[in-house]
């Protein structure tokens, strides 16, 4: 009898350890705002697919999508994705005065106009223009949430975040942007930063240096940031043939159509999903740096300074088994439907 009791206790303890390591939310799924430069790379699309799945599983509550790359065609991609995956009611914000014509690696910005064999649009739409400015959508969504509860996942430019931080009180909240972030945001997950032995830049920050400087100057130092520097995703590749094979159950799929219609042999790695996984599944899945602060040089290089009271940490690259596990998580959303 005693042995049975001991066995049960051991099982419960092991279960408890497993839960805390993976940090699967039990009762309060984390609220997430997804901030993305849709229209150029496909890792943004996979990251968005993952958020839909997490939302459907009750592991997060996706509040909305902020598109930080200029152009209604980029916002239309968000709408096509939302509608296709059954989340057409999600609000979409779009940057209005962002970065002037940033480079496009894989150009799927005209996704909303793609037609099938019959000549009619392949994908339905729900949320048509005009869209609110990205920073305005941030203010509306944040103001409605409990304090210290929202995770922001920023996998594009920090244009809308910089504009949010510069914003003043409005109809949604009397708080300034800085104070609204301080009150509502639990953690920011950023795809970006470079924290090697020598100073380095990353694309998402260096392409809009003024926005990046504003972001680093104004982000509250008591609100956590977890960076996912490029070197973590650099070694996780989801090759085009595998993407197409994973979505073998249909051709009418926005991500598969990107891979059928566009040149996707651009060295696309799985950077953006890592910030989503961290925000929803928790930091226990990752090896993280110690705490510290991050500042930006005039050349948009990120500088990490260790400090136990610092609000910043960054993900560290994993070994081959960890990389395979992460890729498998990403592939799951395409294999299952
Ligand atoms: Ca991106």
| Oligomeric composition of the shown chains | single chain
Largest sheet: 7 strands, parallel
Instruction: Give Rg in angstroms.
Output: 20 Å
Strand content: 5-15%
The sequence of SSEs as H and E is HEHEHEHEHHEHHEHHHHEEEH
User: Average pLDDT, to the nearest integer?
Assistant: 92
Low-confidence stretches: 1-25
**CATH H level, superfamily name:** Ribonucleoside hydrolase-like
Give the overall shape, derived from the CA principal axes.
globular
Level-1 CATH class name:
Alpha Beta
Give the helix tally.
13
Protein topology:
Elements: H1 2-22, E1 30-36, H2 43-56, E2 60-67, H3 72-84, E3 92-94, H4 134-143, E4 150-154, H5 159-165, H6 177-184, E5 185-191, H7 203-206, H8 209-218, E6 224-228, H9 230-233, H10 240-246, H11 254-261, H12 272-281, E7 292-296, E8 302-306, E9 312-314, H13 320-335
Parallel strand pairs: 1-2, 1-4, 2-3, 4-5, 5-6, 6-9
Antiparallel strand pairs: 7-8
Helix pairs in contact: 2-12, 4-5, 5-8
Bound molecules: calcium ion (CA).
Calcium ion is lined by residues 36-37, 41, 44, 155-156, 272.
What is the compact description of this entry?
With 337 residues, the chain is of the alpha/beta class. The chain contains 13 helices and 9 strands.
Keywords:
14% strand, Inosine-uridine Nucleoside N-ribohydrolase, Chain A, seven-stranded parallel β-sheet, two-stranded antiparallel sheet, 13 helices, alpha/beta, 9 strands, 337 residues, binds calcium ion, single chain
């Amino acid at each position: 009898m005693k042995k049975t009791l001991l066995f049960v206790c051991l099982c419960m303890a092991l279960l408890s350890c497993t839960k805390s390591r993976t940090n699967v939310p039990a009762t309060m799924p984390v609220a997430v705002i997804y901030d993305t430069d849709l229209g150029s790379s496909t890792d943004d699309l996979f990251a968005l697919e993952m958020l839909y799945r997490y939302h459907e599983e009750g592991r997060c509550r996706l509040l909305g999508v902020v598109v930080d790359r200029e152009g209604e065609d980029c916002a239309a991609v968000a709408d096509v994705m939302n509608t296709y995956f059954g989340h057409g009611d999600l609000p979409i914000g779009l940057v209005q005065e962002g970065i002037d014509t940033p480079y496009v690696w894989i150009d799927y910005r005209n996704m909303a106009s793609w037609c099938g064999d019959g000549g009619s649009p392949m994908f339905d739409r729900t949320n048509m223009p005009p869209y609110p400015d990205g920073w305005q959508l941030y203010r509306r969504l944040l103001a409605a949430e409990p304090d210290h509860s929202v995770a922001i996942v920023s996998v594009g430019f920090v244009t809308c975040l910089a504009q949010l931080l510069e914003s003043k009180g409005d109809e949604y909240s009397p708080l300034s942007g800085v104070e609204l972030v301080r009150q509502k945001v639990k953690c920011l997950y950023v795809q970006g930063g470079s924290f090697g032995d020598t100073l380095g830049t990353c694309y998402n920050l260096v392409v809009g240096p003024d926005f990046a400087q504003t972001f680093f100057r104004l982000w509250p130092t008591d609100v956590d940031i977890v960076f996912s520097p490029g070197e973590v995703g650099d070694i996780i590749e989801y090759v085009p043939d595998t993407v197409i094979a994973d979505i073998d159950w249909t051709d009418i799929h926005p991500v598969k159509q990107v891979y059928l219609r566009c040149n996707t042999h651009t060295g696309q790695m799985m950077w953006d999903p890592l910030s989503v996984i961290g925000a929803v599944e928790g930091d226990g899945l990752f090896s993280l740096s110690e705490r510290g602060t991050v500042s930006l040089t005039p050349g948009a290089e990120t500088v990490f300074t260790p400090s136990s009271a610092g609000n910043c940490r960054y993900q560290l690259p994993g070994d081959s088994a960890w990389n395979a596990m992460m890729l498998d998580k990403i592939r799951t959303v395409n294999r299952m439907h």
